[in-house]
Write a structure and sequence with these properties.
alpha/beta, 783 residues, globular, 9-stranded mixed beta sheet, 21 helices
Length: 783
């Protein structure tokens, strides 16, 4: 909407300059404002006025303008102007007649040069046709791209000529052939089963003795898993739970958790996974908002729930009928709810039905050919929709699902060792983790035949291809995890594609008026088809806003507006470009900064808040919070983070907190997020480690944070830590001291000194539980 075009001025504005030999040409930047979406006629009038104003000031040298404005300089491009427009009058050149001189035509150069990224030259007389020539930088564009641009340009001119009184966003530039290609969607594939439970019953009967689940040395066959889940399912049915009822699950990762997920579906109900690591406030909000009638949990986690919440303890035995309960639910019934970040300050629940989930499983099994010989690693927490993609395709194919220990996902080397021990053949890893994994020699150390990734923008890779095939994916929770998939990526890659729509999904790139964008032109991703979720639990207003009518589908069909931007490549695949709004993805998690900002302003010392993603070091994207304090207060970073940690998951707590006197504003009075200063990481305090234990922990911190030294009173998050690094810290501390601190310890004990005391307390507790002989035989040097 804000475009600046360069235009030449001959610079001979006085008659006295006409005969002089010399270079007088000046560059005029002509700025175009389309933010108000004018009609073309009004835009034409405004452009005429802007151009006349520019020529009224043509004597101001372009170099002096640059010196005054001082834009960021980049040797790869011209300042202010990257596109150039030039109109040549086609007056016949006078014959050159100089006594004693023979004039010869200068041959055209075979290698013309361009001064700008793109130049548009128009040549013609007052009455004859115009000759249009595109000159472009071949380092940026290729000939097919320019040919498409020329087609778009002439189509746009035709749209203008047909009706110049239309608004500019309504003027089409997509050719009929392109439009047909953009709207072509594959027919959905018939599904083999209506529900997940029907499919699982079929698989358990086919491979009863095959191993279904593996965790911490314990294995469960398909027959054992089916029987255990049946006992629980009959108990749930006896209590009145069935189709369209919700049951929450607050259990630690492991076999028991997955058994209960299956049992809830067998009962015909829908499951809501809750994370024990989340703050109580968030857990209780999800229970209230979702309207679940029961929570399955353990005695140890019961305190996180309201005192009057109906509870079923997973430690209870449920001796009941081992037979499969009859299926009373259908493809249209509710299967599960996943909560995602919400811009209003509260998370929102996405309700997905069985038919959409079965469609995902069917596509996955046909694409990656899972079978009884495969081992799939289950890395994601079930509160993250990627876990849905890991669990159900595996259990419905007869493959083995291997659940690693907590903390393994965040430590690439530990994850590779898990792959090797478990014999993993197929695994999903969030984008940031996959980027670390492909730097390892996976082909030599694991049995992996496919590494699947998605959830964030995969960074370019200039060197050799990864040792195992890497597949890139895209999909929002509202469209059942996966919407598009690429083939195996081949390095070197620039911005890797996210492929094309999977079966059951329709994908359109639309502009602000719902028109398909041409090849190469960014548009917002809209998703339709059988993969769509029902909508947001208890939020009909938000559902109506994001799930809109599909103008290109069957009557009554819908499209989900993702807020993500992409463009079609020449081969038809999609290239993901990022967010169109303020929503961000940090280490694979979808985050609405507005939710964090709303909670920040509930702090008594915070008057205004803004949260943005920043990259303090290349490739390390993290959240940064900016505050304007309430009058007479002095908020501290530690106090603000503690306030958020009690209400948000760890991955949503900003890594840095910066206090400002006032926010920079745009001309319209809004917070200018691009003008917020880059947060500064404080220098390490001078308190040196006081004993070998603190010295060992400080050394781990320094290595993980890539700092020369760390003081024992430094706050982990103030000096550059975040949730991904926190997991690595705790994993390495547990290995060093042979203890079992939870990942939450990094947030509970954010300094070397505090974490050292927690380690000592853990060791002393272990010693106290030992007999004298056990103490003497302990091989733990710290003990």
């Amino acid at each position: 909407t804000d475009i600046t075009i360069g235009c030449p001025s001959h610079g001979r504005t006085h008659p006295e300059l006409e005969p002089l030999i010399g270079f007088f040409v000046n560059s005029l930047p002509i700025r175009t404002d389309l933010s108000h979406n004018p009609t073309f006629v009004h835009h034409l009038d405004h452009t005429r006025d802007t151009t006349l104003e520019a020529f009224n000031h043509q004597d101001l040298p372009f170099e002096q303008l640059i010196e005054h404005l001082a834009p960021p300089r980049d040797t790869s491009r011209n300042p202010l102007i990257q596109a150039w427009f030039q109109l040549f009058q086609a007056d016949p050149e006078p014959a050159l007649d100089l006594p004693g001189v023979t004039a010869a035509a200068v041959p055209d150069s075979d290698t013309p040069a361009t001064r700008f990224d793109l130049e548009l030259h128009l040549t013609g007389g007052d009455t004859g046709p115009l000759k249009v020539e595109l000159v472009y930088a071949t380092d940026l564009f290729d000939q097919p791209t320019m040919e498409r641009l020329a087609d778009h340009y002439t189509t746009l001119l035709g749209s203008i000529a047909a009706d110049p009184h239309r608004q500019v966003d309504e003027l089409g530039m997509t050719t009929p052939e392109e439009l047909s290609a953009l709207l072509a969607q594959a027919a959905p594939t018939p599904l083999p089963h209506a529900t997940v439970t029907d499919w699982f019953h079929h698989q358990a009967a086919a491979t009863p003795e095959a191993t279904a689940l593996v965790h911490d040395g314990v294995e469960l066959t398909y027959a054992e898993l089916n029987t255990r889940a049946n006992h629980i399912a009959w108990t749930l049915r006896e209590q009145g739970h069935g189709p369209e009822t919700g049951i929450a699950l607050l259990l630690p990762r492991g076999i028991d958790q997955l058994t209960h997920l299956l049992a809830i579906l067998k009962a015909g109900a829908a499951y809501l996974p809750l994370d024990p690591e989340h703050p109580e406030d968030r857990i209780r909000y999800q229970l209230t908002d979702s309207g679940t009638r029961l929570t399955i949990t353990t005695p140890e986690l019961r305190h996180k729930l309201p005192a009057d919440a109906p509870v079923l303890l997973s430690t209870h035995q449920h001796p009941h009928n081992p037979a499969n309960p009859p299926t009373t639910h259908t493809a249209g019934n509710h299967a599960y709810t996943i909560y995602t970040s919400g811009s209003t300050g509260r998370p929102k629940g996405v309700a997905v039905q069985h038919g959409s989930l079965v469609g995902l499983v069917d596509w996955h099994l046909r694409t990656y050919r899972l079978g009884t010989e495969d081992v799939v690693s289950q890395l994601a927490n079930p509160t993250f929709d990627a876990a849905t993609w890991e669990i159900w395709p595996t259990l419905l194919s007869g493959a083995r699902l291997a659940i690693p220990a907590d903390g393994v996902l965040r430590d690439p080397d530990a994850l590779v060792r898990h792959f090797a021990r478990a014999g993993t053949t197929v695994s999903f890893a969030p984008t940031p983790v996959a980027e670390l994994l492909i730097q390892r020699d996976l082909a030599a150390t694991t049995r992996l035949r496919a590494l699947l990734t998605g959830g964030d923008l995969l960074r370019p890779r200039p060197d050799d291809a990864p040792g195992v095939p890497l597949y890139n994916h895209y999909g929002p929770t509202e469209a059942t995890v996966v919407t598009t998939a690429s083939g195996p990526l081949a390095a070197p890659w620039g911005r890797p594609p996210i492929g094309g729509a999977i079966s059951g999904a329709e994908v359109y790139l639309l502009d602000g008026h719902g028109n398909p964008t041409p090849f190469g032109v960014p548009g917002e991703i809209h998703v339709g088809g059988t993969c769509l979720a029902r909508g947001y639990t208890g939020r009909p207003d938000l559902t109506a806003d994001r799930f809109v009518p599909n103008p290109y589908g069957e009557p009554g069909s819908r499209l989900y507006r993702t807020g993500d931007l992409a463009r079609h490549r020449p081969d038809g695949t999609l290239e993901f470009l990022g967010r169109a709004d303020f929503q961000v993805k940090i280490r694979g998690y979808r985050i609405e900064p507005g939710e964090i900002e709303t909670l920040l302003t509930t702090h008594p010392h915070v008057e205004q808040a803004a949260v943005v993603p920043v990259e303090t070091t290349p490739g390390d994207l993290r959240l940064a919070a900016y505050l304007v304090p309430a009058p007479g207060t002095d908020p501290t970073a530690a106090g603000v983070r503690e306030h958020l940690a009690a209400r948000l998951p760890a991955y949503m707590v900003p890594a840095t907190v910066t206090v400002l006197d006032a926010f920079p504003l745009t001309s319209s009075g809004k917070v200018d997020r691009r003008a917020l200063p880059l947060p500064e990481l404080p220098e390490s305090r001078s308190v040196e480690p006081r004993d070998p234990r603190e010295e060992a922990i400080a050394g781990i911190w320094a290595e993980v944070l890539r700092r020369e030294r760390v003081g024992v009173t430094d706050d982990f998050f103030e000096i550059g830590g975040h949730s991904l690094l926190a997991t690595q810290i705790i994993t390495r501390v547990n290995q060093e001291f042979d203890v079992e601190l939870p990942v939450s310890a990094a947030f509970q004990y954010p300094t070397v000194a505090a974490l050292g005391e927690a380690v000592e307390a853990e060791i002393r507790a272990e010693i106290a539980a030992m007999s004298d002989s056990d103490v003497l035989e302990s091989a733990t040097p710290w003990a």
